[in-house]
Amino acid sequence: MFYQRKDAMKSNEILSYSEGFLNEIIDELIQLKIQKIKDPKSNDFNNRLKSLMGKSLEEKKFTELISLGDKDFRKSISDQFDNNRDERTKILGENQSKEIEKRILLQSIDMNWKSHIQYLEQLRQVVGLRSYGQRDPLIEYKKEAFDLFSNLLEKLKLDYIKVLMNLKVVVQPQKTKEDNVKKNDPKIIGKKMRRNEPCYCGSGKKYKYCCGAL
Question: Has residue 170 got a pLDDT over 80?
Answer without folding.
Answer: no
